[in-house]
Amino acid sequence: MLGSMQKLARAILVAAAIGGAANLLSPQPSMAQEKGEGKRPPFCQGNPPTGRVKCNYEGGDNYEGNFVNGLPDGSGVYVYANGDRYEGQFRKGVPNGRGTFIFKDDARYTGVFQDGSMRSGTVVFPNGERYVGDFAVVRNVQTDVISSQPAGRGQFFYSNGDRYEGQFFAGSPFGPGVLVRVDGTRCSGRFFNQGLDASVSCTFPNGTRYEGELRQGVPHGVGTMIDARGRRFPGVFRNGKPGVS
Length: 245
Prior knowledge:
Layout: H1 2-6, H2 10-24, H3 29-32, E1 43-46, E2 51-56, E3 62-68, E4 71-79, E5 85-91, E6 94-102, E7 108-114, E8 117-124, E9 130-139, E10 146-157, E11 163-169, E12 172-180, E13 186-191, E14 198-203, E15 209-215, E16 218-226, E17 232-238, E18 241-242
Antiparallel strand pairs: 1-2, 2-3, 3-4, 4-5, 5-6, 6-7, 7-8, 8-9, 9-10, 10-11, 11-12, 12-13, 13-14, 14-15, 15-16, 16-17, 17-18
């Protein structure tokens, strides 16, 4: 489960790639740059500076769509030389509005972009797992990289049928949430990280309850097991099993 939740980091790559598109799609060199200023001009066919165009960029990227005053504006497709692509709406040269970013490995984000950043939508991973919810722009204080990451209300669906729904912050579960297992187990409380460490109350299908700490989504740490008759068994749990009392 830890590995699955960590795949949310893929969302960072979406923002990084879109940021790359924003740089490449700055005012078109053929319209606004002289030789020797930055990248070499792209080769464009169609009706620049305003109209429908096809452009090939230095490095092998391609764009097809609408130009307004020499910038992608309206609907378009930007295809990266590495096989990734963005399909959707642009405004003033960057993704704005509805769009889809598709990775060459078939991971994809579909939703709403604002000024080149993801705001809300769905990330689907190649193994079928997915995140649905809100995003926010954050800055990594160690690397100074700015990116869109899950933040606010969201849901993560696992390939085995489990799901987590609740609050996210800077790409990780952080705050009130609920972990629902495919067998009907339900744990609600406060979650702290991608490893699903938490302080929760759980209800199991057989009527047993657990109140205490989770580590990687299972009872681990100080807690109390309460059977269907209401008897309480406090103790320290390790990997889902009672340990030292």
